[in-house]
Amino acid sequence: MLDTVTSLKGVGPKMAENLEKLNISSIQDLLFHLPSQYQDRTRVQPIATLQGGHNVLIEGVVEHTEVVFRGRRMMLSRISDGTGKLTLRFFYFGAAQQKSLSEGTKIRCFGEIRQSMYQTEMIHPEYTLLDNDFPAPLASTLTAIYPATKGLQQRTIRRLMGEALKKLSGIEDLLPGHVRSKHNMPALSDALKDIHQPDAQSNQAVLDGEHPGIKRLAFEEMLAHQLSLRQFRLQVHALPGIAMKPQGIPLKALQASLPFALTKAQQRVIKEIKHDLAQPSPMSRLVQGDVGSGKTLVAAAAALLAIEAGYQVALMAPTEILAEQHLKSFEAWLEPLGFKVGSLSGKQKAKERRDQSERAALGMSHLVVGTHALFQNHVSFAKLGLIIIDEQHRFGVEQRLALRDKGNEQIGYPHQLVMTATPIPRTLAMTAYADMDYSIIDELPPGRTPIKTVVIANSRRDEIISRIQSVCESGAQVYWVCTLIEESEALQCENAEETESMLKEQLPSVRVGLVHGRMSAQEKQEIMQQFKSAEISLLVATTVIEVGVDVPNASLMIIENAERLGLAQLHQLRGRVGRGSAASSCVLMYQPPLSKTARKRLDALRNSSDGFEIAQIDLEIRGPGEVFGTRQTGELQFRIADLVRDQAMLPEIQKTADLLLAEYPETISVLIKRWIRQSEVFIKV
Ligand code: ADP
Ligand code: MG
Fold this sequence. Notes:
Blueprint: H1 13-21, H2 27-31, E1 37-39, E2 55-69, E3 73-80, E4 85-90, H3 95-100, E5 106-115, E6 120-123, E7 126-129, E8 143-145, H4 154-165, H5 177-182, H6 188-196, H7 203-207, H8 212-238, H9 249-257, H10 264-277, E9 284-289, H11 295-308, E10 312-316, H12 320-334, E11 341-344, H13 350-361, E12 367-370, E13 384-390, H14 397-404, E14 415-420, H15 426-432, E15 437-441, E16 452-457, H16 461-473, E17 477-481, H17 489-506, E18 512-515, H18 521-532, E19 538-541, E20 554-559, H19 567-574, E21 585-590, H20 596-607, H21 611-622, H22 624-627, H23 629-633, H24 650-663, H25 665-675
Helix pairs in contact: 6-8, 8-24, 8-25, 9-11, 10-11, 20-21
């Protein structure tokens, strides 16, 4: 089974090289190279039932074929099957082809359905002309489509798979028999066979993702993923850490200086952190809490505990704006207690950075706030004991590890606390963060009035603008968030600038400010500062203000073209208001017509303010990759498992992971290697 692919018929050095590009070197690798989808050429679908985006087989009679010029020359062929009509569109065609598609010809096509308001069509379908006297049989099984690479065609992969499947008997089933029978799972070799070459009876179950073979492989894949994270966690726990036993005196002083009491949830999470800090191995804890639940204070509490114990703290934020804001908060909280707060950012002048780095290296700063600049090689700490990463979804695992290396081996590895901005559904958190312990701040500070969310078409802009006028007159503040589909930051900023001048014109008595990603860090900070101190009443911004910005006096947010943003991002944005005691509202403006999913998203937001609930809906609408944002997608890309479809299996997978760790430790690394490509295995510490 671990034989190299070159032992298969027809695999020479060139093909082996191509297979290598897909991380396939052994026969086992090949067998675990699973189809990413299937084409169903086993049945002919009625045209009337077709849905856009699917690849389908259809049959019909040509009604009309013509060559037209619509921007470019093309051939259109209209066909009908009695239930409906469909257009075939060809950009490349010859005279003979045109002739063959003459009226009355029977044709069978396979291709992707595209649907517009006016018609259903296929572009360049594969097709065969049918002859009533010579019936062309349909395929009896689904056609597997594999992740492929240049120089390696689907046909070739399918043929090689056929060869590999002959050696299936040599493959070792790593799931203990009693686990398999408990869940009624087929043997591994049967599952693989069915996935690669489903037989006719299995077609539907395979397409629906309900086939026991798929379930079994998905289970095994998620198990492997789980085990690799657990193993990583064990490795971290085995590292020498720093057992801190602070008494909590400065923390008490901070609490006494606050105008409010910590919520029960904040207190509980701080207690959990305190317990971790006292252990001789490094903490690795994730704190989840909805927007506005007060994560920053929990971070401050953790920092004070570490500082009291005699260590330095590094606090990392994902954006300059947020780093600046944290710097201000932590200075205000820590400096009166006699602790020094430093900062490191990519935008600092060389001299200032040198000074700041030196203060960190000499242990003169108790806490250093920064952005990615904290990762850089020349940055070192005298006695780093705790790393806090705010708004984790922007940082990958590698970055977390790089930061851990800032510790000093002699004194032990620093503790790590990660705070997420966007709540993640429990099932997903269990899967993606199995290398960490996990706390939830499940309570908002008291006295918040819920945010009223309305969904309004762009055409009602004028009403909204007069609403802004009266909100500003009452002394409250307003955000206006501009979005654009274009990736280009330049265009986004331009759009925001235009909106700013439009609003200035229409609201002459209101002080309007603008913040966008192309401004210098200093400009941004100045504007944010002016907004914070209420010199500016209406802040026009691109989505740079998404994360963490805290201005409690802001009570109205307008989000333009809200239909373009994902749920998590909208929830995050909306969390910028509703931070004070005044009743707040959020206006989601959209450009009609709304697509079905966009409507679902906006409705979800209007109906719920609970980030966890929203995240669950987001997961269902969009799938896990997107819930995490692009950065995390790589880490959660499964070959066959689907976190939405398979989430019910997760508790059993946890149990099975425990079982293997306890009773079958020898199978673990084999299982991980089988499923997780080397490049994806989390870096060993
Ligand atoms: P997030 O969890 O989104 O990071 P923040 O830490 O920015 O939230 O806190 C949001 C706001 O709530 C801040 O203005 C903060 O000072 C305030 N806050 C935090 N904890 C409490 C509390 N226990 N009672 C009242 N207000 C609080
Ligand atoms: Mg925050």
